[in-house]
Amino acid sequence: MPLTVVVGPGLVADTALLASLVAGACAELDVTGEVVTAASADELRSLLAASDRPVVVLPGPTPPVRALIGAQPPHAVWYDLTVEPPVPGAAHLAGRGLWGVVWAVRHAVHRFRAPATRVAYGSHPEQWGDLRLPVPHDAPAPVAVLLHGGFWRSVWGADLMDALAVDLADRGYASWNVEYRRPDRHGWDATTQDVEAGLTALRGLAADRPLDLDRIVVLGHSAGGQLALRAAADLAGRAGGPRVALAVSLAGVLDLTEGERRYLGDGAIAAALGGSPATAPRRYAESDPMLRLPAGVPTLLVQGTADSPDLVDSNRRYVAAARDAGDDVRHLEQPGDHFAVIDSGADIWRDTMAAVDAHLGR
């Protein structure tokens, strides 16, 4: 399958380096790729109109080209190297520099090969989830909710979990890949409210879709691991909402208090929560997984040994503290880096799913 990357006028980047990144990403996905340059908005519009393949557009700074963001074809992914506000209604990624081109290529290929149904769970442009159902889907399927990481920063989004979302649907799960407002633009409370709303929305989705809400597994990566464990604990203590059968942390940030002291992620924790444990005690008490023990929800922690030593350390300490508190917790620690745990072809992901399937009786 061929893929096209279209470079708009005025983009600041070395084209040879860009082509090399695209070639590597395409080889990883078993597709071919080409990089073409559009000299004007009219030329870009013509290229898009003729496209029947996955396409990534790097629009650049020219206003007439930027006005096209979100234009047809619907499978186009728009990517800005620089930090830009999201464009409602568009598959738009931004702010990851040149390395982000790799993620944009992945996003375009996954969207093209395994289209998802995008469903809004709120009125804000960032309150949505991508739903993929298994085939066939005549019987109620267990639900896998995906929460991306990125140190709670807006430059990272739900596309990080695309490969897992597709893999889970192939395994017979209904995958629900949730986007949410990040605290750098909207505040911490908006983030936690959105994650809970995304989970609560499953009741509405199940009204006309075969979803088994007695078998919900929430899988969060990195910062999403913290969000997954908090949401599972919150829902366990409330009546009427969906209940999480298993919470899975994939290289999760599980000790916010100590992580803030260690300046994890260049101060990402204090930036996200709006202060330190001393200045924002309520938020740490509500959100720090280590302070929420016992969580009261079966939990699986997955951690690569080649990841940050601080994450390896906090996961090991969390397991010990959770077991002492009486929680049902399993620890899967294997070779792999921070992204191996969300690599659908990695051994650590295969073993993660073996544990998830066993817990859900599959």
What does this structure look like?
- The protein has helices at 15-28, 41-49, 63-66, 100-113, 162-170, 183-186, 188-200, 202-205, 223-236, 256-261, 268-273, 281-287, 309-325, 347-359, and strands at 2-7, 32-37, 55-58, 76-80, 92-94, 117-120, 128-132, 141-147, 174-178, 211-221, 246-250, 299-304, 329-334.
- The chain is an alpha/beta fold and 362 residues long.
- The protein folds into two domains: 2-108, Dehydroquinase, class II (Rossmann fold, 3-Layer(aba) Sandwich), CATH 3.40.50.9100; 116-359, Alpha/Beta hydrolase fold, catalytic domain (Rossmann fold), CATH 3.40.50.
- α1 (15-28) crosses α4 and α7 (188-200) crosses α9.
- The two termini are 34 Å apart.
- The model has no long low-confidence stretch (mean pLDDT 96).
